[in-house]
Design brief:
The protein is about 75% helix and about 0% strand. By secondary structure, the chain is mainly alpha-helical. Helix 1 crosses helix 5 and helix 6 packs antiparallel against helix 7. The radius of gyration is 18 Å and the shape is globular.
Length: about 250
């Protein structure tokens, strides 16, 4: 985690935009049409999420990952005390002030990355999976809808259902890659409902009923997509165009 001398606002803005461009993800294309201040806010949010996600996915041991994520907890505290040092936190300073971004949502993202930092991740049940998705995806959505300008009730509903839909889709698409890291996000109780022994990861993936368990999780994701669509239909379409684009990308 960089704690170099603070950059100017323009330099920190350029810093986070470079992170977004280098990532080459669909996020860049979804956000690039936003007006300047909103676009820069979303780039800064993305850069923060990318930074802590890279920590959780890195090669360091669990203890070291938690230590570095702890530094980020401290940086978020400094951000809200108007004393940020990290260039990403500096880029977040204006969005926090202008859009009323909540500290607890940044902290929730870090909580989710701490879950990812664990060795041999296994999720007990749907409640734990929902908590994980809320931290790593819905919290990002809650930050985003504030930038988009949605009111609290509508924004929270869209953020929750879209976050669940997108993260469950990620989980299902990345099962093989996650398994190489000792991670499995399909809940234990769902596996056991298909008589799959949830203890041995390689045998779980080979089990003939595993695709059915994944289909059940895909059905949950689809329900959240439908509820996100319903929430989006009640919003100003121009306000949430980036969110709509993200859902369309994930449905391909």
């Amino acid at each position: 985690m960089s704690t170099a001398s603070p950059l100017t606002e323009a330099e920190s803005t350029a810093y986070v935009e470079a992170i977004v461009r280098r990532a080459g993800t669909s996020f860049y294309w979804a956000m690039r049409r936003l007006p300047g201040q909103k676009r820069q806010a979303m780039y800064a949010i993305y850069a923060f999420c990318r930074e802590v996600d890279d920590i959780a996915d890195g090669a360091d041991g669990e203890e070291q990952k938690r230590a570095v994520l702890g530094l980020w907890r401290g940086e978020i505290e400094r951000l809200y005390a108007d004393r940020p040092r990290n260039p990403i936190a500096l880029a977040l300073q204006r969005p926090v002030a202008v859009f009323g971004l909540k500290k607890e949502d940044f902290r929730a993202v870090i909580d989710g990355m701490e879950m990812d930092a664990e060795i041999n991740i296994k999720i007990a049940d749907m409640d734990e999976l929902t908590l994980y998705c809320d931290r790593v995806a819905c919290a990002v959505g809650r930050l985003s809808v504030r930038v988009f300008g949605l009111d609290d009730e509508m924004g929270q509903r869209l953020a929750f259902h879209q976050g669940l839909a997108l993260q469950l889709t990620n989980i299902l698409r990345d099962i093989s890659e996650d398994a190489k890291r000792g991670r499995l996000y399909v809940p234990r109780d769902l596996l056991e409902s298909y008589d799959i022994d949830a203890e041995d990861l390689p045998s779980i993936l080979r089990h003939p009923a595993f695709p059915q368990a994944c289909e059940t999780l895909a059905d949950v994701a689809q329900r959240h997509f439908s509820q996100a669509d319903a929430a989006a239909a009640e919003c100003n379409r121009e306000q949430i165009r980036p969110a709509i684009m993200m859902m369309e990308i994930y449905r391909r």
